[in-house]
Design a protein that fits this description.
Helices cover 35% and strands 24% of the residues. With 593 residues, the chain is α/β, with parallel strands linked by helices. The strands form 4 sheets. Strands 3-2-4-1-10-9-11-15 form an 8-stranded antiparallel beta sheet. Strands 5-6-7-8-12-13-14 form a 7-stranded antiparallel beta sheet. The radius of gyration is 25 Å and the shape is globular. The structure holds fructose -6-phosphate.
Amino acid sequence: MCGIIGYVGKSTKAITKTISCLEKLEYRGYDSAGIAYINNNQIIIKKERGRIEALKKELDFNTNSNLAIAHTRWATHGDANNINAHPHQVGHVTLVHNGIIENYLELKDMLEKLGYTFKSETDTEIGCAMIDYLYQKNNNHLKALNELTKILKGSYALGIIFDDDINTLYAIRKDSPLIVGINKDEFFIASDIPAILEYTNKYITLEDNDIAMINNEVKIYHHLKEVKKDIQSFDYEYVNQDKGKYEHFMLKEINEQPAIIYNLLNENLDNNLKDLPDLTHYKRIDIVGCGSAYHTALVAKTLFEEYASIEINCYIASEYRYQRNFYTDKSIVIFISQSGETADTLACLRKVKDHNIPTLAIVNAYGSSIAREADQVIYTKAGSEIAVATTKAYTAQVTILSLLALKCAYKKKIITSLDDIKESCHQIKDITNKLIKNTDYLKIAKKIYKKRDIFFIGRLIDYATALEGSLKLKEISYINSATYPAGELKHGTISLVEKDTPVITILTYDAIKDKTISNIKEVKTRGARVIIISNQELDSQLYDDLIIIPKVNIFIQPILTIIPLQLLAYHVAKLNKCDIDKPRNLAKSVTVE
Ligand code: F6R
């Protein structure tokens, strides 16, 4: 999704600093980049389709500038081209925008009647013109921006320069993240904190409808009244945006999983799960997330229901926010998010809080909106994830949810001792490392990478993992894959299975293993190429390829099961020469709905 950076300060290196921060936002996904900077009292705008690298070629980094705004655009309204790229400029106003202005057509109509004309297809240019109009009407920058907050519908984070106040950077936000970074003699605005960590770890979080006026000091206004904000300090791990010995961030992040899983499991088990919240008090538990985060909820459902006897309701955030929700006086809602900024998940959190229902967030990004706004937060401590396709954050989320389910089972005395599980968790790093290294995933990937359709099947917890495996494959290799509960295939979809159609089957869940084996036979009989991921040896007639994963305690099993699927997807995408870390059309942090 779009990323925003702004700089104002004593240094004349605004261009260098802004671009180096902008590069830290590349992981979010984008298709064009641009900058506006002040030089010799002029506002200069440069923008380029494609990567920041292309923009850099258009810039002279020796140009003196004390103020700049820059942007990576992930196209929503209008193609990815130079005209639609940000910054946009109308009248007195130059700006960059993250979010979607939902009432832009209505505003466009009004502005056209007032004589405004537009060059781009974007909602942003309309927002820009609207500010210009309000500025001319109010003859005051702050009043114009304050009036804007009452007019714009949708989400926005804006970095703004007025051509008659070129020493001041203005910033404003609603439902899209934006922080103000504070350093000696210089200030930044940024879509996330890690982007500015090279320069400072001190920051102010802007809340909805705050207006920041930044020159040689920072003033924050809310409904035209100046408000005092605490300066916060980001003291967590510095974002390591270095691939090290790995060819891709995704592979690096897959290889970081053994240590992350080991640390999360052992630090919680060593103190008998005492730091984790006790969910046995609740009568209704909803878990909400998007994409992979939603899949972790489905994994947790089996663990909570079958092993702790607690019912779980799983919801996709973009649906939950608009549907009727059923709460009891003993409800809790759990939100899962790597970025902590996903617009739909954040909107659900706010909706639930409006009902005074307790909220718990399981989040990876420190200081993110969801982490700040939930009543309780558990950090997944996976470190920054750069590859767009989540791997280590997913397994960390599953690990935390498994521990929460285990705590419930323990509290309810369904499980009476943690000793066995503690014992196996001490081995988990080695086990996971071997799982990553000891199987020739490339060899199996070579047999399927040219296929256009692949099926994934499994039952219950294995179905949840199959959904995630299928998503990994789709997003990075662009191969269409569909996932079914194994028993459901014959109710229609099996008609698509023909000779050599890959059917990837997850088979770790003993309770229902024989049923899934029958379903494997059904597709095998129809010529399918069957690849099984299982924690036990199987009759060789059942499969073309068998990937054996270690059999561990059920609370840990799903953490391991996904790893072969991540690696299969990785190798299939690599064989297809796909842009593994930055798949087309995808963004890392989905800050629009
Ligand atoms: C897939 C993937 C996405 C995210 C989803 C939610 O690999 O990464 O499906 O899981 O966009 O993002 P977060 O967890 O940041 O809320």
